[in-house]
Every structure is written in structure tokens, then in C-alpha cells.
Design brief:
single chain, alpha/beta, globular, Rossmann fold, two-stranded parallel ribbon, 203 residues, five-stranded parallel sheet
């Protein structure tokens, strides 16, 4: 896919009043996130192979379901407002289907949608309250890798820095302490994360 015009990028800050919203449900879920092509899905797949419970990325699941209906990526992306709303709703559906007490690694989470709303000029505060339904046990931000493209990704290097920056800012604004995962081979990234969780008594 082609890139996204930066004229749409909107640096909307989160509403300070809404940021005082209390979390409703404490979970034992661990978010794996980062800018596009940071290696998170590779890591999620590795965690699954090792026997850990994982949850899929809402964005990819949404796009795969739309393609399965016979729609092309170009047709789907022709209405990006609908796409972003659909992805957010899919992510909410995924999380509402999980058990809070289960130890689960999430391939992104609802707060990731905040940055993507900004990418297309939408207001992230429209669904900010939804980010307070579940409180995640930990958030791991993966350092960026060289951008790789597939049919579902925009061919746009500017998205890496923009979304990566806002993912970090948003999770911190929501009160999370972010653990940054450096660029390492996948197995070493896995060991890095598990060591942190072990030290925190989360594993």
C-alpha cells in the first residue's frame, strides 16, 4: 500500500479530565506494542509457540475478515475513518473475550488505537474512556526495526516515528510504566521480557 499524507497527522493531546477516569478491571495481561514493523507479531508468535497464552492484533484481524468478504485492501482503505473505528471495535471485542485473571500477552491493546486515530486526523478522545475498562499488568514497547512491508501495511516510514512516539506518550499518560525492549534476536527479546516479569513476580 502507498503511504499516508502527513496532512492528516493530528497531534491531539489526551483530555486531562478524561485521564482521571478510574480503571474498572485489573488484569494479568501483558501488552506487546511499538511502531509498525517493530517485531511484535514475531515475538507474539514465539510466545505462543512456547506455550504462553496470546491474543491477536485487532487491526490485522479486522483487515483479514474484511478481505475474506471479498473486498480488496484498496477498497477497504478507501474509507479510513471506518477502518480505524472498525479496528478499535475489533480490539475491544478481543479484550472483552479474555479472562482478566489469565496471564495473556496481547499483540497491541486498545490504547494503541489512539495514535492511529491521530494519523488520520481523528480525535482520540472520542474513545478514551474505553482505555480505562481494563488495566494491563505491564506494557512492553519494542524498539524499532527496519520497516518491512506487506499487503496490510502502509509503505510510509513517517508512520514509524509518529506512531511510536504517540504510543509511548499515550501509555504513559494513562499511568503505565513502560518497559523498553531493545533490538535483539527474537529469542533474546523473549528472555528479556520474561526476566522482567519474573523480577516483578508476574510470572
Amino acid at each position: 500500500m502507498s503511504g499516508v499524507s502527513q496532512q492528516y497527522f493530528k497531534a491531539t493531546e489526551l483530555d486531562e479530565g478524561l485521564l482521571s477516569t478510574p480503571f474498572r478491571v485489573q488484569t494479568n495481561w501483558h501488552v506487546i506494542t511499538g511502531a509498525p514493523s517493530c517485531g511484535k507479531t514475531t515475538l507474539i508468535n514465539l510466545l505462543s509457540d512456547k506455550g504462553f497464552q496470546t491474543a491477536p492484533e485487532g487491526a490485522r484481524l479486522y483487515l483479514e475478515k474484511e478481505v475474506a468478504k471479498g473486498r480488496s485492501i484498496e477498497e477497504i482503505r478507501s474509507n479510513e475513518v471506518a477502518v480505524q473505528c472498525g479496528i478499535k471495535d475489533m480490539q475491544l471485542e478481543i479484550e472483552h473475550g479474555l479472562q482478566p485473571n489469565d496471564s495473556i500477552f496481547l499483540d497491541r491493546a486498545v490504547p494503541d488505537c489512539l495514535a492511529w486515530y491521530r494519523v488520520f486526523g481523528l480525535n482520540p478522545n472520542e474513545f478514551l474512556r474505553d482505555c480505562f475498562h481494563y488495566h494491563y499488568a505491564s506494557v512492553f514497547m519494542l524498539d524499532q526495526l527496519p520497516l518491512q512491508f506487506d499487503d496490510f501495511r502502509y509503505k510510509d516510514n513517517s508512520l514509524q516515528s509518529f506512531t511510536g512516539d504517540w504510543h509511548t506518550r499515550d501509555y504513559r499518560a494513562l499511568g503505565y510504566n513502560i518497559a523498553t525492549v531493545p533490538v535483539l534476536p527474537p529469542e533474546e527479546r523473549l528472555d528479556f521480557i520474561l526476566q522482567i516479569l519474573s523480577e516483578q513476580g508476574s510470572m
